[in-house]
Amino acid sequence: GNSVTQMEGPVTLSEEAFLTINCTYTATGYPSLFWYVQYPGEGLQLLLKATKADDKGSNKGFEATYRKETTSFHLEKGSVQVSDSAVYFCALRADSGYSTLTFGKGTMLLVSP
Amino acid sequence: GAGVSQSPSNKVTEKGKDVELRCDPISGHTALYWYRQSLGQGLEFLIYFQGNSAPDKSGLPSDRFSAERTGGSVSTLTIQRTQQEDSAVYLCASSLNPRDIQYFGAGTRLSVL
To answer: What CA–CA distances, in Å, run from A83 to A48, A60, B79, B92?
Structure first.
């Protein structure tokens, strides 16, 4: 079956540090890949997505590249801010069948001033 | 409202009681999804609706869980004879069509004492 594995947190960084959150997946075919973010007390928000190999999704300074050869979709940001503190979820949607999302367990990011 | 609305935001119940959780999707969205977010388990898919039909119920953990959707809009997730292991945040999402981006509500935090 489909699965998503992401690095466990919490990830603790100082403001302006470089961020990488690793995400790898197992799926047949060509799934779509997503990063969602959950700020404290809020629902999940789509951060970025990529639908085919070598696509790069980007938003709010975050980016991730769909790497088919390594089945990865790592999230990066060059300079984090305190306001980026949240839980980040990597997810996939299979390219066939039902459209439900399979999520990783989430990675908490804590950014200190 | 413009987003997915869930109620109640918090629910505390006693073991053995029944609970109903409500989801109001974004107007016009045909697809609706329920997920469960538990500590240490991440986000798990429960059930998917297309219109009023539920073609994928594969994530419901037991026959104590059921859901319905009426008028292609509001959905109710019912948990009968609640157990402590049912304690979690229950998230609802909707999308315009099955392969479109899913938009999430803020969730209902269920605590079973």
So the answer is: 17, 11, 36, 25
Neighbours of B13 (CB within 10 A): 16
Asked if the C-beta of A98 comes within 8 angstroms of chain B's C-beta atoms, the answer is yes
Asked if residues B57 and B32 have their Cβ atoms less than 8 Å apart, the reply is no
Interface of B with A (CB under 8 A): 3-4, 31, 33, 35, 40-45, 48, 55-56, 59, 91, 93, 95, 98-99, 101-107
DSSP B102: P
**Interchain contact A110–B (C-beta under 8 A):** no
The token duo for B108 is: 């209902």
What pLDDT, on the 0 to 100 scale, is given for residue B1? 52
Average pLDDT over residues A6-20: 94
pLDDT in tens, B1-44: 579 999 999 999 999 999 999 999 999 999 999 999 988 778 99
Q: A46 CB near a chain B CB, below 8 Å?
A: yes
Say if the Cβ atoms of A98 and B104 lie within 8 Å: no
Q: Which of A37-41, A74-78, B97-101 has the highest mean pLDDT?
A: A74-78
Q: Looking at the DSSP assignment, which residues form a beta bridge with residue B104?
A: B93
In angstroms, what separates the C-alpha of B43 from chain A's closest C-alpha?
6
